[in-house]
Design goal:
The protein has four helices and 28 strands. The chain has 364 residues and is mostly beta strands. The strands form two sheets. The chain has a ten-stranded parallel sheet with strand order 5-7-9-12-15-17-19-21-24-27. The N and C termini lie far apart (50 Å).
Length: 364
């Protein structure tokens, strides 16, 4: 049953006394205490196993199936090992807390086909949620109304193979996680979220994108260590951002570092960076002082309607990157490149805002 159905509605479905007819399972029925003291690992895994056994459907497997919703009554459930979640599981909490006591262990590992997680707060551990879909069609995992605090690794990571997957993350809060998301899905969207970064993050990005990633309506607050080469997004494929606040605390950190090279076979599988109506305050990383930093040149760079610092370079280029050599093959097919930095950008089109000369010559 979708997590959007309130618990009161779930209870109203079954008559009093018809416990076996309830469309949900409670972790308390399997011995979980949620008292912030007891190790609930075994009880929670037993509940998850029972949920997996409740799987039913006219055609099981990759296309459709259902299992009873697993409900976490309000409480603080402590675990010391990774919990394994089945393929069609729906986990529903009341901002109930899952606390991983071992900083080297992940909290949830799921197959991700139709998993939904809502209303849970994750504290500690290495990774809060790990998803692997085995490149199965129709995979659509969703995380909504969750909070992620103090992970030593990415709060959420999709492992290979997880392409052919639509990942949705919305209405979530991330606080002091080493990274928010490592994405390997063909399509991932993160919307309506608040992110406060970890000051301890070094040489990495809040988002590591190795698929297609869309960010929208996000408030980002960076805790900046100016010597740690921090950035918001490392892009290895395609990323678009709309109405994202790349915050300016302590002058902010670089919005996007692009590692995705252009492909002359475009538009079969383009690489791109798009910033639309974003707030850009990105001068706090002395290693990469620009909104978009090019370690490689993608097929598309589009910056429209953005706001920020008057002396912020829109594009910066890695000193070791030989643009002429990189773009030599593009001369045979210049249409594979598109660079658009519109004059609608407010305060970020100063003398340092123009495209490098090599890009201006090849862009349309």
């Amino acid at each position: 049953m979708p997590h959007r159905v309130a618990l009161a509605a779930l209870l109203a479905i079954a008559p009093l006394g018809a416990q076996t007819a309830l469309p949900y399972l409670s972790v308390r029925d399997f011995g979980a205490k949620g008292d912030a003291v007891t190790d609930d690992t075994a009880a929670l895994q037993a509940a998850l196993d029972a949920q997996s056994k409740s799987l039913s459907g006219a055609q099981l497997g990759i296309y459709f199936g259902s299992s009873r919703t697993l409900f976490f009554p309000a409480g603080r459930y402590r675990v010391s090992d990774t919990l394994n979640v089945g393929s069609y599981s729906v986990l529903l909490g009341e901002q109930s807390t899952l606390e991983q006591t071992d900083p080297a262990k992940d909290t949830l590992r799921m197959m991700g086909y139709r998993n939904e997680v809502s209303g849970l707060t994750f504290i500690g551990g290495k990774r809060a949620v790990v998803i692997k879909t085995n490149n199965v069609d129709t995979c659509m995992p969703r995380l909504e109304r969750c909070e992620f605090l103090h992970t030593t690794g990415p709060a959420i990571e999709t492992e290979e193979p997880s392409n052919s997957t639509l990942l949705t993350i919305r209405d979530c809060l991330f606080l002091d996680c080493d990274q928010v998301l490592v994405n390997r899905c063909d399509k991932a969207s993160v919307t309506d979220c608040w992110i406060t970064t970890s000051r301890m993050m070094k040489g990495r990005a809040v988002f590591e994108n190795r698929g297609i990633l869309h960010l929208e309506r996000i408030v980002g607050v960076p805790l900046v260590d100016r010597e740690s080469d921090q950035r918001w997004i490392d892009n290895y494929n395609g990323v678009s951002c709309r109405a994202v606040r790349f915050g300016g605390e302590d002058a902010g950190i670089t919005a996007v570092v692009n590692f995705a090279p252009y492909d002359a076979t475009y538009p079969v599988w383009p690489t791109y960076v798009m910033l639309d109506d974003c707030d850009l305050y990105c001068l706090g990383n002395p290693r990469r002082k620009a909104a978009i930093w090019l370690a490689e040149v993608p097929n598309q760079i589009v910056v429209r309607g953005c706001h920020g610092l008057a002396d912020l370079p829109v594009i910066g280029v890695e000193p070791e990157l030989d643009l002429a050599a990189r773009l030599a093959a593009a001369k045979a097919r210049p249409g594979c490149l598109k660079f658009l930095i519109e004059d609608t950008n407010s305060e970020v089109l100063g003398a340092l805002g123009a495209l490098p000369e090599a890009l201006r010559q090849l862009g349309p």
